Amino acid sequence: MKRTFSTYLLITALTASVALNGYLLWPTEVVRPSKEAVTQSKTQQPPSELFSPYYQQAIRQFDQQQFSAAVASYQQLHTAQPLQAEQLYFQWRNSVEDWLNDGQLTTVERFLQAFLTSEPYNVSMLQLDAERLVKSQQPNQAIVALLALQSLANESQLAAINMRLTQLTIAQLQALNERRAWQTITEQTLAWLDYDNENPRYLFALAHAYYQLNDLPSAQSSLDRLPLEHPLQSQAAALQEQINHAINGLDKVPLEKRGAHYLIDIIINNDVNTQLMIDTGASFTVLPKQLLESLYPQPKYINEMTVNTANGQVKAAHYQVESIKIGQQILHNFDILVINNHSGYGLLGMNFLQHFKFNINQLDNQLELEKQ
């Protein structure tokens, strides 16, 4: 009987073992989490109970754009839980960058005003405020703001600020040069030099603007302030030569060759820039009618007169403009003609050139003007 019972136990145990192994080895369907669940697990915040009530309150107020209250909660959090405050700070900074990219400039301004009232010397937030000014089409204010930041920034921040300053000042000077806004350039570069008084780019731009305004002493003084070693040596040398010629009463104005003729840049009424074709056979300077109509103030009408052209005698309207400027040479109350059906470029005639000793230097493509 004992042997039979033992055998029964052994058989039972073997049967159970086989059943268990079969269960463990039987292929089953693997249940994998959905892609959404994985993504959610990566971005899910730690349980809210791990954060200070100040943190949760600041988040809620920030989301509701109650920025002054949110900053006050942030300051309390900074005192109680500095690490949580640091995490919140970076979240807010990222939000401001997103708003800037999305063009939500009013929201950015409201938040930064609240935050900088509490922390007026926070360099990172002040950098973001400078970017707000750029996005608001106020590049000069942004440049001045970044210049003022230089003394507050650490080494890594300073490198980023200087790189951004280079980008902004180059773009601003290029835009102002294209508009020939020489007075604006002098005003802005003088303000920049209050922060960085040996910057060669600012000094050269200032000297060039003074030269264009025919303020030769100031142009020379600005050039003299350039350091001995700087990256604008060739441009400074060319400007120095122009200043020397102007002081001696000689202007060398670049020409653009167009076939057998030359085009020259002129400024009318100290406002409108255009090109005229030099014509030493023309007694009067001729402007296209469309250009005349764009001038402000409107030119003074004198009379109608008959002139000789290559196509015979034609009627022309005689006007007087306030001024015409070529290089550094300017004539006031200058007579011009408008001829109907005149196509192409206007003409620079002898009524301008006769006031100077002039030479068309075909080798260098320059018009040399010297006061008589």
From TrEMBL:
Q: What is its EC number?
A: 3.4.23.-
GO MF, one example: peptidase activity
Which protein, by its recorded name, is this?
Answer: TIGR02281 family clan AA aspartic protease
This protein's superkingdom? Bacteria
Q: Which terms are listed as keywords in the entry?
A: Hydrolase, Protease
The record's listing under SUPFAM superfamilies reads: Acid proteases, TPR-like
Q: List residues of the Peptidase A2 domain.
A: 274-352
What are the GO BP annotations of this UniProt entry? Answer: proteolysis
Does this UniProt record's set of keywords contain Protease?
yes
